[in-house]
Design a protein that fits this description.
CATH class of the domain at 12-238: Alpha Beta
Protein name: Amidase family protein
Distance between the termini: 34 Å
Oligomer: single chain
CATH topology of the domain at 12-238: Amidase signature (AS) enzymes
Strand order of the largest sheet: 1-3-2-6-8-7-12-13-11-9-10
Number of strands: 13
Organism: Saccharothrix xinjiangensis
Number of helices: 16
Amino acid sequence: MIETTAAGWPSLTDLRARLDRGEVTAGDLVASCADRIAAVDPLVRAVLALDPTAAAQARESDRRIAAGAARALEGVPVLVKDNIDTAGLATTAGSRVLAGEPPRRDADVVVRLRRAGAVVLGKTNLSEWGNFRSTGAVEGWSAVGGQTRNPHALDHSPGGSSSGSAAAVAAGMAPLALGTETDGSIVVPAALTGVVGVKPALGLLPGRGVVPVSRAQDAVGVLAGSVADAAACLGALTGLPAAPGAPVTGLRLGLWRGRRMDPGVHAELDRVTEELRHAGAVVVPVELPWDVPRLVDGLDALFAEFRVGLEGYLTARRAPVTTLAGLVEANLRDPVELSLFGQDVLERAAALTDEQLGEAAAKRARARWWAQDAVAGVLAEHDLTAIVAPTTEPAWPLDHGGDPVVRNTTTIPALAGLPNATVPAGFIGALPFGVSVFGPRDTFAALSVAATVEAVCGDLRLPAISPVTG
């Protein structure tokens, strides 16, 4: 069996070496995950279902390892967000309307996961429909899974929408998990729960078989205990080599403080800045522009893309409803779906006119060009390799009356389609604090810088699963 350390699971390199030496089996890893999930998930509520074929998958991995035919992720258990199709295992996006017949096919990224030798361990909870249902929604809540909680403080939010994936990795339930992001849905919950979260560059991983918010902005990504593990997973899924950490001496980083962040965030950011400078990096304060019309363009496009993409997915899935209007009606008849908050986002998207749908492409292009120019301009002006920023403010107390307004730095890189990696870098009281690294267009180039930031000021801790912050 595998025992986790104070920082969670051993590294993937260590796990794979132990598997190859026969010190542990893939079956042992699956059993360790199952034991940890049984012990802590009744409190955290991150895992919706375990895959009943996980033990058989592990036996196949053990056979391949014994035969000398191991693949990059052979025998490594991976949890998968429940908006990513898994053949024969329910994929619901958190909605009861999809809780019946499971998908017939794996999403393309799950096909790649299996081909790399990973064991698909199970499915994780999420903010229902990728948090694109209501302006009064609660992150980490779905009608299927209930409320996922932050393992560092169970009375606080885990963020979302990849809530379960982040909380599960943070609590040591699995070494890796897949999530998805449109704007902040990987990096924000990763930062709030104190793990590494990587949203790759747009298009690095395939999106077929993923319940969409926006085919033009969605990305499948990874949650892990370290940048190296996230990079290794992405390398296994793409066939691309992971880059080593960038030399810290002389590394030029832009420091963006975001907009109107909590004072505790600024104090932690000052500490991170001093640690980077002491290690030899050049850290330059920068500002990114904030163009409200372009941000509105991006949001308008999102509503149109959501309707077109989701209706296409529902039709291909042969779901009980195939239109947004049908989904709205089904929710009205359901005793659980609207028990905490409404569905005004679904209703707005369902009511779009043909003219509004037709305007989406031009609005998307304007928003993307602006965001790309904003980041590229700052990098060029100051001769920077990347930008470092606080990912988000600290986790907030859970309140099923709706989440407060919480500021983050995710929108510009999301609109630009750039990779974004968050690294756990400290704590504000009992709550994790994460810093984001973005700017390079290449995912592995961004991860190279993130690995350096992690080496200088990383702070990964296995949570005590405490009921309250105290």
